[in-house]
Amino acid sequence: MSSFSESALEKKLSELSSSQQSVQTLSLWIIHHRKHSGLIVKVWHRELKKAKTTRKLTFLYLANDVIQNSKKKGPEFTKDFESVLVDACSHVASDGDENCKKHMERLLNIWRERSLYRADFIQQLKLAIEDSNSPRPSEEKKAVKRSYQKIQEEEDDEDDDYRSHLSPHNNDTAANLLTEELVKALQDLENAASGDAAVRQKIASLPQEVQDVSLLEKITDKEAADKLSKTVDEACLLLAEYNGRLAAELEDRRQLARMLTEYISSQKEALTEREKKLEEYKQKLARVTQVRKELKSHIQSLPDLSLLPNVTGGLAPLPSAGDLFSTD
Q1: Distance, CA of 176 to CA of 174 (rounded, Å)
Q2: What residues does 169 pair with on adjacent strands?
Q3: How many Cα atoms sit within 13 Å of 30 on the Cβ side?
Q4: What whole-number distance in Å separates Cα of residue 291 and Cα of residue 285?
């Protein structure tokens, strides 16, 4: 992994995209250099403010990935990011639209559920987002004239947002934050401690002497005692490590249960919205079908001109101009 420097971090941040792979790759690099956490957060904050509006949310996703994945190795990033997150959230929200703010609020909910920050600090971040809703003076006085093409693009964006309502952050990453987290949690549990047959077999194969104090009476010499002591130490390490993994798995499963509850809730909301949309289009279809039916009936009631009688049949032809002025 490449060495750390401020310029190297700036370059990597400038190349950061909204894809999950891009966010995770840079996150791993940052965590690897966690001894520079203070400088990393300072540069991140500075580059966030310089980034284009469409990229700012991705910077928050990067911070989220770093904070969550570094907490087991140390609290450095959690503490250092705390000093700039209020300003960062306020800045991103003030430049972003309502869709952006929804994704930010969802991110804060995840932080609260996983106890990454104190509840009062999460509330500060939410207030920073809400306060950004106040229109700026220049926006109140200046009307913006939009071209037809711009209006169409905005409408297309709204349609895209509806279609990907539950799937957030900046198109790809934003829209799939909750789903990605859920899938990752399920994948992690595939290799959970409770399913580690090899370790369970090792534990089951431990000699009775390490589990039954009464058997110590059978030890009659120092060599046997030393051998058993070594076996007991190894058994303690094995069991302590396995118990730690089981405790971590238990917490992961609790977290997964919370995530599933949130996911089900979000799916129910999406279902309600889509049912409303379906009903709306059913009504439109009914109206169009009625118009089609009335039009067909109207067409059938119109006379068929091809069936009208020949009004000139059997009558003498009209005289020509020459006949009219003939002297004969």
Answers
A1: 5
A2: 174
A3: 34
A4: 10
pLDDT digits (tens, 9 = 90+) for 282-323: 999 999 999 999 999 988 888 877 776 665 555 566 667 666
With contact defined as beta carbons under 8 Å apart, do 44 and 90 qualify? no
Q: Give kind and range of the element (H or E) at residue 94.
A: helix 76-95
Instruction: Specify the DSSP element, H or E, that contains 141.
Output: helix 137-141
Contact 107, 64 (CB under 8 A): yes
The Cα–Cα gap between 182 and 256 comes to 7
Task: Tell whether pTM > 0.85.
Answer: no
Compute φ and ψ for 169, nearest 5 degrees.
175, 120
Q: For the purposes of burial, counting CB atoms within 10 Å of the CB of 109, is it exposed (0-12), middle (13-18) or buried (19 or more)?
A: middle
What would the two tokens of residue 90 be? 């306020």
Q: What is the largest CA-CA distance in the chain?
A: 162
Three-state DSSP class for residue 260: helix
Q: Which residue has the tokens 């809400």?
A: 130
CA–chain centroid gap for 285, Å, is: 33
pLDDT number for residue 130: 87
DSSP annotation of 72 reads T
28-62 in b/e form (b: 16+ CB < 10 A) is ebbbebbebbeebbbbbbebbeebeeebbbbbbbb
What tokens were used for 57?
A: 């949310």
